[in-house]
Amino acid sequence: MTPVEIGLFSIVAIIVLIYLGVYIPIALGMVSFLAIWIMRDNIDLSFALLKIAIGDSAMEYTFATIPLFTFMGLIVSKAGLGADIYAVMNQGFRRITGGIGMATVGANAVFAAVTGSSIASASVFSKMSVPEMLNFDYNPRFAVGVVAGSSVLGMIIPPSAMLIIYSFVAEQSVGEMFLAGVVPGLMLAAAYVAAIWLMARLTPGFVGGREVEAATLMPWSEIAVKLGPIAGLILVVLGGIYTGWTTPVEAGAAGSALGIVIAALRRRITWRSFWETVIETGHITAAILFLITAASMYARMLGLAGLPNELQTILAANEFSFFWIMVLLVVLMLFLGTILDTASIILIVVPLFLPLIEALGLSLVWFGIVAVVAAEIGLLTPPLGLSCFVIKATLDDARISLKDVFLGALPFAFVMLVVLVLLIRFPALSLAILN
Amino acid sequence: TETIKAVVIDGYPARALWVQEFTNFFIPEVDKRLAETGNYQMDWQESYGGTIVKPKGVLEGIKLGLGDIGIVTTIFHNSKLPSQAIAAATPFVAADARAVARAVDEIAKEFPAMQTEFDAQNQVYLATGVVLDTYQIFSREPVESLADIEGDKVAGAGMNLRYLEGIQGAAGVRGGLTDFYNMVQTGLVDHAMLWPEAAATFKISEVAPYMLRADLGAVNSKTITVNKDYWEGLPAEVQEALQEVAVLYRDHVAGIAMDRAEESRNAYVAAGGTITELGEDQRAAWADAMPNIAAEWAKGLDDSGQPGTEMLQAYMAKLKDAGFTPVRDWAADAATN
Amino acid sequence: MRSAVKRLADGIAMAANAAGTLVVVLLVAVVNYDIIARGLFNRPFLGAVEVVQFSMVLIVFLQLPDVIRVGRLTRSDGFLGLLAVRAPRKGRLLSRAIDLISAIFMALVVYAMWPEFLEMWASQDYFGVPGVFTAPWWPVKLVILLSAGLCVVHFLLHVARPLIDDQPELESGS
Ligand code: NA
Ligand code: NA
User: Fold this and answer.
1) Distances in Å between the alpha carbon of B51 and those of A11, A20, A205, A298, B12?
2) How does it sit in the membrane (chain A) (predicted)?
3) What is the tens place of the pLDDT at every residue in B73-105?
4) Do the beta carbons of residue A267 and residue A82 sit within 8 Å?
5) For residue range B158-201, what is the model confidence (pLDDT) as tens digits?
6) CA C42 to CA C36: how far, in whole Å?
């Protein structure tokens, strides 16, 4: 078999196994193990690959950001920081049709700066925003759609578990990836707000809702109290990384410690809930890193097969244009997004494209942003759309079906696609902040 | 003509100096030699930059046969390859990559230690590479003497953190090359220890415009090795070609490293940097205040049954013969310890 | 028989999980200690990087058996869910087959890591820089080995599950 055949065959095998319901890391690991064995007719080599991948993938310093930022996000949502931002945003957007929806987007954008995961955003905001919007007669589909759509901000605006995973695969600096995510994240938030404004005018039936009565307004002092802790956290985390005072790992640790202090001062945490938060952190970390380990085995199998070299040769011979490579990337990402979670998509697709992108002399930081945004569209698309699942599970409301969540999220997935095209077309959107 | 497949691995990307020269120098040289007789032809698969292994994984990758030929970064493997630390453990001897590369490579071939260590990792030693001409001190503020570093924080990595034990109150802060710019810029550290070429690559002159020319010395960090099973299956002619070219590659890379060092120092000054020489008396004071890390290194090898002290003596003698005057004779100290 | 094994295996997984949880707390503490010691007292902790790397391995492999026990390993269960409704018998069969394959894979990991552990134990290899900070390799290999072994047991327990008592759960860390 040629390297390209091995690459194609293995990806088909992996997709079939995953579709059947095989655990994703097991599918990746097993296919890699067998592929090497068949390719080289040498099972010792398969064991060698297994040994190397298992042995050193978890032992990566920057991976400590995964438990640290996960923990920080979980502990600050326990401390009620999400609810505070939301209350302030609601006041700001109260006069506008679709205002609560915009407030949800805005609050998510701010909350995103202190959490590394979309799951945290989706669960925190489905408990807060959805009931609020239903109270004001918003269309339930729109209500859940807004929460689903804005939850992806959690993983584009730094800190972000996905940017960390990408920086590992592509050997880029986590700090640079984080900085590059700022503008695209804010841009996506702005695009959502604009889309809500348009929907409220063009398809008022889909949005629904009525204006919020001017109830008693929060005084500035209360706004300051509500936003103070999160501002402090953002300052410590992003400030530390941006100025170089702390590595991303240290920023995560400092943020976690500060999160504990905030939660304790607000008396929002008991020993028991603290312990549960840490256990949850451990589970998430173990699941992600085991997946990364298996995916690294898969990427190394492709390397051993010589696929990167082969792709470079093919690229040199055919001179595929930038345009067609990007079309191929986006189509593949959207397709995989229907059945895989974001981390798996990045881990499977990025190694295939890195040689092409490098050969074209394009920025790997920019490509990381494109890859992460493209993969995250999958959070919103059926049949496997994690953000939508989390919202459905958290709401636990018989009036809202999973189908409603997916339909509500669809316009937001479309907005993401538009933003993705802009990010591809204008790399400066991601890179300007670095220079 | 028989075609022989060779998978070359390194975890560093293709643009790294020693990887680039493997592609542009080592491979064509081997091909050229084999073409003379026409008996054999190599089919090279070059897999760099983490496609098969990470930088720290080359040693294990070659051991397990994931690659046939590899460039092992030896400074990551103090435990498995202790004798490779020979140049790092002997600062202030020679700030010349060519001389150090030759001396270390000769030690490797005259004494069994280095080859035994690689043999235990199921691989065959070919040659030593030196890509680092010498560590220097880059500072935020003007530095004239050691007194200006006392009590300060200095960024470093690996063995060079131990050099700081010779400066009163100086605290080493470890970091990767990519972190040094930020560490200096924010004042997290006052100085950073790195070599001029790396300083140029990472634009250190922007944040640390004062270089103290301490000439701590060149350090060997790369070794070309071949998987043992693969090696044993190679025809003698190919083995010979690889061995000869490895030695040429050793000198070729060290030469480029020295050229780049010179260019980098000039670029540093052109970018507004100031270079101050550290006086001989100051260098001697620093070296004398250090613990004898060379003796520690030699004793560790002696204890494990390798001729550490003899290697150290031979190494110092080779560099003296090559015309270098050590600031501190680490071997003389070691003998009397 | 199964229930006795299950009680024991569950207990070990939960204990390992608690230990891994403590490591998360330790990680936060060590990194913050380094930041403060370095920034305020000029006394950086030179082993911070090794301790962080070490704790990552501990966190992942101490928690993995528990992740499997509670069914939170990443998977896409659309088809399994469909099958559970349309053809429950086939669904159960497929689900067991998947857990069996998973057990085999983890057994391969055990087989690969065993000699690795023995070698590190015998050679007492370490990582880090002598005189700066060093830590032995063998505990890392031992944790991976034991963890993979426990994962095999838990996957086999899934295979031997009398009925599908619950839907295969869907989870991901993302
Ligand atoms: Na975030
Ligand atoms: Na999806």
Assistant:
1) 17, 29, 52, 10, 10
2) Multi-pass membrane protein
3) 888 888 889 998 899 999 888 888 889 999 999
4) no
5) 888 888 888 888 888 877 776 787 778 777 788 898 888 888 87
6) 9
Q: Which residue type does B29 have?
A: E
- Chain A nearest-CA distance from C17, in A, is 7
CA pair distance A68, A116, nearest whole angstrom: 9
Over the stretch A32-90, which tens digit does the pLDDT of each residue have?
A: 999 988 888 889 899 999 998 887 777 777 778 778 877 887 888 787 777 777 777 77
Q: Is-contact C116 C91, C-beta < 8 A?
A: no
pLDDT at residue A385 in the model: 67
CA pair distance A199, A370, nearest whole angstrom? 26
Chain C positions in Cβ-Cβ contact with residue A70 (cut-off 8 Å) = 173
Nearest by CB to A61, which of C49, C79, C105? C49
Chain C contacts in chain B segment 122-151 (CB below 8 A): 151
Q: Is the ipTM of this complex over 0.90?
A: no
> DSSP label at A252?
H
CA–CA distance, B137 with B193 (Å, rounded to integer): 5
Q: Say yes or no for a CB contact (<8 Å) between B174 and C127.
A: no
**Subunits with 3+ C-beta pairs closer than 8 A to A:** B, C
Domain count, chain C: 1
Compare CB distances from B162 to C44, C127, C132 and report the shortest one's residue: C132
Q: Specify the DSSP element, H or E, that contains A90.
A: helix A81-92
Question: Measured between CB atoms, which of C38, C43, C132 is closest to B161?
Answer: C132
Domain span including residue C83: 2-171
Measured in Å, residue A110 CA sits from the centre of ligand 1 at: 9
> Does the pLDDT at position B244 exceed 90?
yes
Report the alpha-carbon distance of residue A158 to residue A155 in Å, rounded. 7
| Average model confidence (pLDDT) across chain A | 81
**For residue A344, which amino acid is it?**
S
